[in-house]
Amino acid sequence: MIGAPKAYGGAVAETFSAQLWDDISDIYSAILAHPFLSGLTDGTLPEESFAFYVIQDALYLRDYARALAAVGSRAPTAGATRMFAGHAADAIAAELELHGALLDELGISHGMLQRAELAPTNLAYTSYLLATVRGGSYAEGVGAVLPCYWIYAAVGKRLLATGSPDPRYQRWIATYGDDEYAAVVADVIAELDRVSYGLSDDERARVRSHFRTTSRYEWMFWQMGWVRESWPV
């Protein structure tokens, strides 16, 4: 089961992952209150903001796939290596499927996507992820990539209860609110809890810091889409 008792699902309170989720309760609350998400459910999100977000998310997933592959390459077990390698491949598949269909419907050509530039928040987020998974420990890498999995699953489940009158927004919600996706996320949470045993206090603190930082970037990513963030100079 994904999540923490007060937020989403029913993770056991004493697990390391539940502690991390409790640590970001303020960030998760801010995410749920963000106008980008309320605009998805009531259908008022401007198409231009959604299109900007979809382009940036497609660009993000390419680097996220690289981050997952890097985490998998450092995994201590063959099962974890296979899991993260599979998820890296799935991230690319998601870009081709969900984002591909949405981009077509939004009138965004492949050429426009190829010419698109990473927005400042996107570049900062992906740079932080790649630096952490390549320069930190395996546990730090898992802690850094987990919020993207977990927060999207939690948000998807939350928004699924309301739905959206816009079929494009509803498709996005359904993708991340799906039980199959929740099972994928649960496996990653379980892996973090597995490797958390035996970590020193210092390493736990580093994992906690990365988890909170990338959770903040998740809020910033929706803010980036909402305002259609651009480089100031």
| Discrete helix count | 11
Helicity, as a percent range: over 70%
Name of the CATH homologous superfamily: Heme oxygenase-like
Number of E-type strands: 0
Main sheet record: none
**What sequence of helices (H) and strands (E) makes up the elements?**
HHHHHHHHHHH
The CATH first-level class comes to: Mainly Alpha
The secondary-structure class comes to mainly alpha
Low-confidence stretches: 1-12
CATH fold name = Heme Oxygenase, Chain A
Report Rg: 17 Å
Strand content: under 5%
Average pLDDT, all residues: 90
Please provide a written account of the structure.
The chain is an all-alpha fold and 233 residues long. The protein has a single domain (16-227), classed as Up-down Bundle (Heme Oxygenase, Chain A), CATH 1.20.910.10. It has 11 helices and no strands. Helix 4 (47-73) runs parallel beside helix 7, helix 7 (120-135) runs antiparallel to helix 11 (201-227) and helix 8 (138-160) packs across helix 9 (167-177). The radius of gyration is 17 Å and the shape is globular. The model is unreliable at 1-12 (pLDDT under 50).
Quick summary of this structure?
The chain has helices at residues 16-23, 25-32, 35-42, 47-73, 78-105, 110-115, 120-135, 138-160, 167-177, 179-196, 201-227. The protein is mainly alpha-helical. The chain has a single domain (16-227), classed as Heme Oxygenase, Chain A, CATH 1.20.910.10.
